[in-house]
Automatic annotation (TrEMBL), chain A:
Pfam families membership: DUF1361
Keyword ATP-binding: no
Positions of transmembrane segments: 12-36, 56-78, 99-117, 137-154, 175-199
Keywords for the protein's UniProt record, in alphabetical order: Membrane, Transmembrane, Transmembrane helix
Protein name: DUF1361 domain-containing protein
Top-level taxonomic group: Bacteria
Signal peptide: none
InterPro entries reported in the protein's UniProt record: DUF1361
Origin species: Virgibacillus kapii
From TrEMBL, chain B:
Record carries keyword Transmembrane: yes
Domain of life: Bacteria
Transmembrane segments annotated in the record for this chain: 7-28, 34-52, 79-98
Keywords in alphabetical order: Membrane, Transmembrane, Transmembrane helix
Origin species: Virgibacillus massiliensis
UniProt name for this protein: Uncharacterized protein
């Protein structure tokens, strides 16, 4: 079974589970949908590769939408903070409800990491030139970290860049301070770590 | 006077209708089958194109869209952009309720 099929099967099973069973993390339906949508769009990157000047507007529009959606994959990792709705006081014995919800949330995060890794592969292989691929990869990770910061702390969605672009940019500039830079750096380190662990050999594959 | 919600809803409806017709046209033109015409018209929000992608496009070219003919490539690019536009309008509607 290829990675794409695995991603699809896992997504539909996960969403089905969240719809059918009672959990405290039903917001994961939307969050994982957005992460999965970003992955599916990444598979279309080559379709929107510009072949002549007339294709530029459509391709630019597609790349903008993809860039706006792509941070959603790594954003799901930060949803782990919602584990704090449960006490997890193990001295009180096994509370099944807590661990059921733990399983649901953590499996959603693992799936999001899987989608993220496959999405990054598509971004990395988009460019045929190894140097530009590395730059693209670096910029993509940095933009994703900024996207996570905007989504998590300024509470903006990707769509607000279309509906309220000025407000979003002004709020982002106002919010940038030392702590924000640290947070963005930590999110980038997290992404580099994931890539280093799960994309090992990508560079060699690119050279072939 | 027309408000934002009405504007988004009207735009969304027109987009949905036009893109359903366009995707159905592509699917029918490629497959010449009533089943694909039915799938094209009945499944909204890009599900029709998604199923077609899984059943045919990926089997035909996997991820190498260079194998498509110029016409097929052009039609697919348009169809996917229609689907994206549908989601953008949907998110714009949804975004109105989740404004920080």
């Amino acid at each position: 079974m290829n990675e794409r099929t695995k991603a699809r099967i896992s997504f539909f099973i996960y969403i089905g589970l969240l719809i059918v069973f009672d959990t405290s993390y039903s917001f994961m339906i939307l969050n994982l949908f957005l992460a999965f949508a970003a992955l599916e769009l990444s598979f279309l990157l080559r379709l929107f590769h510009v072949q002549n000047k007339r294709e530029i507007p459509m391709s630019v529009l597609f790349f903008i939408v993809f860039l706006l959606l792509s941070p959603n994959a790594i954003y799901v990792v930060t949803d782990l903070i919602h584990l704090n709705v449960f006490a997890f006081d193990f001295k009180e014995g096994l509370q099944l409800n807590e661990w059921w919800n733990f399983t649901i949330l953590v499996s959603g995060v693992i799936l999001a990491i899987y989608y993220y890794v496959n999405m990054i592969k598509q971004v990395y292989f988009y460019s045929n030139d190894i140097t530009s691929a590395k730059w693209l990869f670096f910029v993509f990770i940095l933009l994703s970290s900024i996207g996570v910061f905007i989504g998590r702390f300024l509470r903006f969605h990707s769509i607000h860049l279309f509906t309220e672009p000025v407000t979003l940019i002004v709020r982002f500039i106002e919010a940038i301070d030392f702590s924000a830079v640290l947070f963005i750096s930590w999110m980038s380190i997290l992404q580099f770590l994931i890539c280093w662990l799960f994309l090992d050999g990508t560079g060699e594959a690119h050279d072939k | 006077m027309i408000n934002d919600l009405q504007l988004y809803l009207t735009t969304g409806f027109i987009l949905l209708f036009v893109s359903q017709c366009y995707i159905t046209y592509i699917l029918y033109q490629q497959q010449h089958s009533k089943l694909w015409f039915f799938i094209g018209m009945m499944l909204p929000l890009g599900m029709n194109l998604y199923i077609y992608q899984i059943c045919y496009i990926e089997k035909q070219v996997d991820n190498d869209f260079g194998q498509l003919t110029g016409k097929e490539r052009k039609q697919l690019r348009k169809a996917y952009l229609f689907v994206l536009a549908q989601y953008l309008v949907l998110f714009a509607l949804f975004g109105g309720y989740v404004t920080p």
